[in-house]
Amino acid sequence: MSRITNQPTEKMSDKSFRMMSLFFKIVDFFFPYIKKRLKKFGIKDGMIVVDYGCGPGRYTLPIAEMVGIKGKVYAVDIHEMALKKVQEKIRKSGIKNIETSLAKENNDGEYNSGLPDNIADIVCAIDMFFIIKRPPEFLSEIQRILKPDGILIIDDGHQSRKETKQKIDRSGIFSIIEETKDHLKYKIAQK
Predict the structure, then answer these.
(1) Which residue blocks in the chain are alpha helix, DSSP H?
(2) What is the dihedral of CA 35, 36, 41, 44, to 10 degrees?
(3) pTM of structure
(4) Among 20, 91, 118, 167, which residue is least crowded by beta carbons within 10 Å?
């Protein structure tokens, strides 16, 4: 039996999280590009979207607006401070279609988002994949929560595009359907 741990290896320190949040706040104030970026993701009214690695929620709330009251957003992160920050933004905004979930990993290296199987139309993994230490296990969890025709939207973060694609291709789980300078779109590979 695997024991669930609250200290995934990818979790940043509280101090680093606070610094990252402040940095994003400054960047978003001077360069408000998130809504423009999200328009390219294919998010539509009524969809269920997972913001995996949501951090302080800079994408979560705009996604919630895009999916509307018939849709839902799951904000998933390994850091408790991230979810508290998102919950604070939810309270302030009054948006009601967001739910938070604390991601964990067990001792076998399996990831657990805490979400049901086949729930998501789209999973967004923005600026976080570079920190994942076991990409195949992480991508297996993404596959589990995606609907069979669901889409993974992922970017490079702080690694090269070549490295991002190699990690995903090696897993054998996903097939690329679109590549832009900004992001990659994948669907579950047909077996």
Answers:
(1) 14-30, 34-38, 60-67, 80-93, 135-145, 161-171
(2) 60
(3) 0.88
(4) 91
Per-residue pLDDT of the chain (191 residues; tens, 9 = 90+): 333 334 445 777 778 767 776 767 777 677 778 999 999 999 999 999 999 999 999 999 999 999 999 999 999 999 999 999 999 999 999 999 999 999 987 767 689 999 999 999 999 999 999 999 899 999 999 999 999 999 999 999 889 999 999 999 999 999 999 999 999 999 999 86
Is residue 60 within 8 A of residue 131, CB to CB? The reply is no
**CA–CA gap between residue 70 and residue 10 (Å, rounded):** 33
CB 56 within 8 A of CB 24: yes
Domains, in order of start, for the chain = 12-188 (3.40.50.150)
Tell me how long the chain is: 191
What are the C-alpha distances in Å from 75 to residues 30, 72, 142?
A: 24, 10, 14
Backbone angles phi, psi at 6, to 5 degrees: -95, 5
Token representation of residue 149: 């025709």
